[in-house]
Amino acid sequence: MSFPKNFLWGGAVAANQCEGAYLEDGKKLSVPDMLLGGDVNTPRTFLPKTDPEAFYPSHEAIDFYHHYKEDIKMFAEMGFKCFRFSINWGRIFPNGDDEQPNEAGLAFYDSVIDECKKYGIEPLITLCHYEIPWNLVTKYNGFADRRVIDMFVKYATTCFERYKDKVKYWLTFNEINIACMGEGGIGNLYGLGIMDPQDVNADHRIPLNELKSNMQTTYVALHNQFVASALTVKAGHEINPDFMIGNMIAHVTVYPLTPNPKDILACYDEDNLKNNLCGDVQVRGEYPDFAYRFFKENGIDYSYITEEDKKILKEGTVDFYTFSYYQSNCITVDENAETSSGNMTKGAKNPYLKASDWGWQIDPDGLRYTLNKLHDRYPKTPLMVVENGFGAFDVKEEDGSIHDDYRIAYFKPHIEAMSEAIEDGVPLIGYTTWGCIDLVSAGTGQYAKRYGFIYVDRHDDGTGTFARSKKDSFDWYKHVIETNGEEL
C-alpha cells in the first residue's frame, strides 16, 4: 500500500441530508425541504405545498446544526484529515436573490469550520449540493434563467471572502452531470432547480421519477451552471490564489454487456454523455465534439453557447477533479436484458457482481479502472474520490453495538483499488467516504438506508433521540487512517 503521506482521508456529508434546522436563524426553504421520504420499493415524492401532516426528512435530518461539535469531535477521533460538507445556499441568501447575506448563516459555518480547524481537519466545502433555494425554482425556474448565474457567483464569492483564510478546498456543484442521466426530472430538480410549471403548482404528491423534463431547458440550464462554475473559479482565484477549486461528477462506470460491437458503441456513447461531457467542459474548458452531435441529433438548439461563454469556460477550468463512485453498470442494445439501478442511473445487470439491498452493483475493481481512465483523459489534473460508501440496514444489538462487517467488506477492496491506482501513477490526493455519519438518503429520503461509521438514533417514522454511537466500522476506519491505508 502506498498512499502519499499527505493523503486526505476523511468523510463527506451534505447540508440538506444532515443539518436539519430548516427554517432556523433566517434560513428559508430549499429544494430538499419539499421532498418526502420513500423506501426500497417506493420512489421519493415531491410535494410543493407544505403539508403539516407530512414528514419531510430534511426538516430535522440528523440535527447536525445542533450536534456539529459532537460530530466533528468523533470525526477527529477517527483521525480525519479532511471533512467534506456543503454550505446550504439558503442559509446565506435565504431567497437566493437577496441583496445582503444572512449573517446568522455565515456565522454558523464559521463555527463549523473553526471546529474542524481546531482538530487539524481540512474543510472541503461544496457550494451547491442539491440545495438551491426554493424561491429560485418558483420565481426563475432555477438555472434555466441566466440571471441565476450572477446570483450563484454572488453567493460563492460571499463565502470565499468570508472564509478565505480558513478554507483551501472548494467544489462548485455536486454531481453536476446528473442532468445528463436521462432519469426524467429528478436530476433537473436536484441539480438545476428547474421544473415543469405544472409540477411546480401541483397540489398533490408526485413521485420524483414522474417529474416532467424538457431536454432543451435541461441543457440550457446545465450550460448556465457551467458558466456559473467557471466564473466562480475565476473569482475564487482572484480572492485567494491558493484556493483549490474543483468540480464533482457522479461517475457511474459502464461496461458493454457483451462483445457485440453495438453494445461497445452504445457503452462508448453512454460514457461520453453521462460521465465525460461535464468533466470535459470543466477540466478542458470546452464542449467536446460528441456533445454537439448529441445536441443536433436530439433537436437541441445550442445557440445559447455564446462566444463570450466559451471564453469564460476556457478561463475558469477547475484545479482538481472529484467524483462519486458507488457502482458500475452494463450497457446493451438488448431491450430484454435484466436491468440494474443505482444513484439515479439504470443499466443492464452485470452477472459477475453482487449488489446492495437497493440494487447498487458492487465493483471495487471498477474504481481502479475509473481512476486510470480519468487520469488518461485529464493527465495533469489531481483526482479525489469524494463519495464512496455502502447503504445498508444496520441492526443495533441489545448492548448498543452495531456489527457492520458488510460495510468494512465493501470499503476494504475499494481502498485496495485506490492503492493500486496510485501504483499505476494516478495522482489521487484524497478519499472521503459518503455518509461518514448516518444521514437522510437523497435518493429515497430514508434514515434506514444507513451509510455511516456513526449510528444516529433517527428513524423513518420521525422517531428517535438523535443520539450518536459508534459502529464496528468506526474503529476499523480509524485504524486505516492511522496506518495511512497500510493495514486494512
UniProtKB/TrEMBL annotation:
Under the GO molecular function aspect, what terms does this record hold? beta-glucosidase activity
Q: What would be one Pfam family of this protein?
A: Glyco_hydro_1
List the record's Gene Ontology CC terms alphabetically.
cytosol
Keyword Hydrolase recorded: yes
Q: Which InterPro entries match?
A: GH, GH_1_N_CS, Glyco_hydro_1
Biological process terms from the Gene Ontology for this record are:
carbohydrate catabolic process
Q: Which UniProt keywords apply?
A: Glycosidase, Hydrolase
Concerning its family, UniProt says: Belongs to the glycosyl hydrolase 1 family.
Q: What is this protein called?
A: 6-phospho-beta-glucosidase
Q: Which organism is it from?
A: Longibaculum muris
Q: What is the lineage of its organism?
A: Bacteria, Bacillati, Bacillota, Erysipelotrichia, Erysipelotrichales
